[in-house]
Amino acid sequence: MTQAANPNQNNGTNNGIRHDWRIAEIEDLLAKPFNDLLFEAHTLHRQYHPANEVQISTLLSIKTGACPEDCGYCSQSAKHATELERERLLPISEVIEKAKIARTNGSSRFCMGAAWRNPTDKNLDKVIEMITEVKALGMETCVTLGMLTEQQSQRLKDAGLDYYNHNLDTSPEFYGNVITTRTFQDRLDTLQHVRDQGINVCSGGILGMGENTTDRASMLQQLANMPQHPESVPINMLVQIEGTPLYGADGIDSIEFIRTIAAARILMPQSQVRLSAGRHEMTDEMQAMCFFAGANSIFYGDKLLTTENCETNDDLALFQRLGITPSQAEAHSSEPAADEDMFKAEACHH
Ligand code: SAM
Ligand code: DTB
Ligand code: SF4
What we know:
The chain is an alpha/beta fold. It has helices at about 25-30, 35-50, 90-105, 120-135, 150-160, 185-195, 215-225, 255-265, 285-295, 310-320; strands at about 55-65, 110-115, 140-145, 165, 200, 205, 230-235, 270-275, 295-300, 325. Strands 1, 2, 3, 4, 5, 6, 7, 8, 9 and 10 form a 10-stranded parallel beta sheet that branches. Helix 4 (about 120-135) links the parallel strand 2 (about 110-115) and strand 3 (about 140-145). It is globular, with a radius of gyration of 19 Å.
């Protein structure tokens, strides 16, 4: 079974893990003296996770652009005048080729994203083939396809999908400033369908869209008060894209960003907190602080969905300087596993 360990199955307070946070308590956490906050987060991090391991996932956009939704940050919305070229659903052979490269480069999870409001059942047939073939390579699978029905979630579960990514994006209060074509509740409903099927949940949000600290606390509250925490919590820093409504939004101060990572770690101690989009704009030191604060997962590979990610050589060099190693997938296959030596390679200095 490739299912990742699912440690927070109790919906009460297992090991003192809470699901009843008030926004004011989270605001207090975010406002703590920085050293106290980081010490608390890092102490918990060590209690639940190997201190020097980071899980690495590779993203691939399997269907790009022409999306009917109006998410204000996104290059792929048909409603925004971005320069993105649309692409139809990729052929399976191309997806598998990319997954093999990701595996050779050491990724344990392959995440496939589609610019859909929701998949049709026919779309899902194709995605299920992709999931089956990627799993056969021994990788964990994740897809992000928009809203799902109960029945579609069941089909994905039957196909052996490991993770479904569907972000809350922001607080319920700030949500209307970002997206108008689907509601916050729609997102919660999709997450519930995924959870009900026993698929691991990957859900987080974006910082730096002009939200305030209370919004950040409120978004974290939504995630942390779920009866079962998402197994994976991606925290993205907005990648500003020309032509989108959020281009030019007030960004987030780097210390505030690190504080938010620390708060996510404290609220959801057993989850993987992923330092997601926006790493390209971060210094090595900022990323190192994020890892210390509790981030233990990244997207690896030169591209995210439609925008640039950090160069893989730079990531390898940073991992080496920090003494970080990639954590291995739990998946099994008859094919050779990722080449661990990639991470012992001579770092590329710039
Ligand atoms: N279309 C599907 C959906 O929205 O549910 C799946 C793909 S969508 C691109 C996945 C997530 O990527 C979004 O929910 C958002 O959190 C994140 N994202 C998209 N564009 C971003 C950007 N410019 N900066 C940071 N995060 C972004
Ligand atoms: C997530 O939270 N971030 C990823 C993934 N889940 C699908 C997407 C980031 C996209 C960044 C902008 C782009 O490349 O288009
Ligand atoms: Fe479409 Fe997803 Fe982009 Fe929203 S985030 S516009 S749903 S691709």
